[in-house]
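Hi all, long-time lurker, first post. I run a small reading group and we've been trying to get comfortable going from sequence to structure in the token notation. Rather than ask abstract questions, I figured I'd post a concrete chain and ask someone more experienced to write out its structure so we can walk through it together at our next meeting. Sequence below, copied exactly:
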Amino acid sequence: MLASLFPEIDQTALLDMLISLEGSVQQVCEILSSPAGLSPKRKTGNGIGHQTSLASFKQGSEGSSSGSISVPHKAKTRKGQTLHLYAPEDIEMHTPCSIIHNFLPAHVAEELLKELLEEAPTFEKQTFKMFDNVVQSPHSACFYVENLDERKRQQTEYLYNGSFLTDIRQITPQMRTVSGPVQTAVNDEVARRIQQHYPDGKKLKYQSPKEWVPNAAFVNCYKGGSESVGYHCDQLTYLGPRAIIGSLSFGVAREFRVRKIIARDESDVGGKPVTSPDTERADAEGQIAIHLPHNSLLVMHAEMQEEWKHSIHPVPVIEPHPIAGNKRMNITYRHYRENFHPKYTPRCRCNVPTVLRCAQRTKGNRGRYMWMCHAGLTPGKEGCTFFQWAEFDDDGEPPWAKAKGNF
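-- Answer (accepted) --
Happy to help. Here is the structure in token form:
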């Protein structure tokens, strides 16, 4: 109906508008028929996806004579649907992320992309055990650290999915060049998020007040549209609670999808208990697709890993990049905190440093942290049933931090 009334406007823009206004065709017609109207969605090539901000679809507050725009405070997702977001203001309003387009000077981004493409052919796909089955990650990756000393520490002291990584590299010259701008931008975004989006302008409980320093990075390569990664939360073991991650994207644009975690005993949007499989429970809130163009910096904020899951969605067709071809290269910068070095964290009965997880499945314990054995994630090994609740102060520091004076 809307497409027939407004044929000059892209159907995707009309759908976004309809979802934003909770399905009210009348409100959509009123807005589009007003003198201001809505500019048609521009069709783009390999650049940034364009979308009129969802904020512009929302009428002013009731009783307002000025017609001012108010920004919706709840993501307009619907069961079984995907809401596509492009505009930075929509992304930061509806998700625990913020994005900066055209982050680096074009020539710097190009040089870094070329450097990563030279590294990518030697990346490997990680193998691990899941529910007694040995599986392989659907994309290749490699881990980078600041210097050779840290590389040696990582190879002998840090465990990932119950085993040591063998291919750990020192960050490349171009990665070192951009880590400073990434650090500045992420800390600025974190400060702005606290001021503008958190209650009373204060950081979240367990969020560290210290400066975020990108001292480690996973570099991911997605070759073609079929290479992806399923819904997951990033591991908190060496980052601590309320972790922040800075993610740079280069090459082919892909969809970064996020969905709110719904506990098994929580009600869905219709008030019925959600007891069905994970995919159906996620559909109760829908999912949001953030479009990541070349040379964009996405910041995953402090509420991301505990309350949301994220993925890179497979697609049947991609638009090739002039330099990267069919590849997307992605650097996820992380801040490894010294107080979460495995020499301090609890060990399980396998005598292996434990993994830090956040309880998400039931409302009663949701948000609590726990130390658990993860030796059993290594193919050919069996783990134990070790479990211990984790305790942190309001700044996310563990009990031993104060004892050793490092807090």
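A couple of things your group might point at:
Residues 36-51, 58-73 have pLDDT under 50 and may be disordered.
The chain is about 25% helix and 20% strand.
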